Known about the structure:
CATH class of the largest domain: Alpha Beta
Oligomer: single chain
Strand order of the largest sheet: 1-9-8-7-6-4-5-3-2
Order of helices and strands: EHHHEEEHEHHEHEEHHEH
Amino acid sequence: MIEEFGIPRTKPEKISHLLHLYIDGGIDRRTMFRRLVRLTGGATAAMATLESEGLAQESRPACPDNIKVSETDPAVTWSDVTYPGEAGSCMGLLARPSGQTDPQPAVIVIHENRGLTEHIRDVTRRVAKAGFVALGVDLLARQGGSGAFPNDTARGQAYGRTVANERYNDIYSAIEYLHRQDFVIRDRIGAIGFCVGGGDIYYGIFNNMPLQAAVPFYGTPPNPIPDNAVTTPVLAIFSETDRNQAARIPALATALVNARVTFEIHLYKGTGHGFHNDTGAIYNPAAACLAWDKSIRFFNTILRAPA
Length: 307
């Protein structure tokens, strides 16, 4: 089940809130329809509302048994890249939809505290297969890159030597690199980050990073929340057992409301920190599928909106 934060007040807001709960799996179809009948005044009006929202037929995101996108998947073209940064060369994995002819929005993928792992490289290819230019950044580039370390333990120790401002600058360099590519729409760049990568997203959007959409997965919001006004639309994903992170939700929501940006906050019940990582023990396939579907829909809505 998913909880959404924010208090809907008008009838359209209440209907939108209800339908989002249903789409995200927070309530079943029968419960949704019963509540919708009460809100709209009758079954006929409720069905008309569902038809207008494309929900006349029951729908859930398709969750394939194998969510991975292999290095040989013909739908994706990828390569390891280097590009200029504050302290020398930055590193990353660039992935694009195969056969791309027109410029597309881009999404930066920000890794967990183990560097640019095979899992994050896979996630980067998943973003590309969804139709975006994707750049998985390697925030260990200042220390030779993730490939310079023999195992996760060593990469974790290396990550512990990084500092927030340097990571900010390296992500900023990734944005500048994408700005220079003729296959990217310059003003349609988003970012998705996991664990500490989610924290990097919060640090970025509260410090004027030029992103047009941000999706932090179980990242820790700043404490206290800065007064800096956020201008980036945000889809914030939380897990139930991240108690310290979840405790920041009210302050985060208040800051985003005051900033008057588009935002959604979702807490996935029955999940732990890292529930999207299909290589870890905490992996929750159902919640991961729902959260991923929500993320791609969010990027499509924001980054592909008419100019």
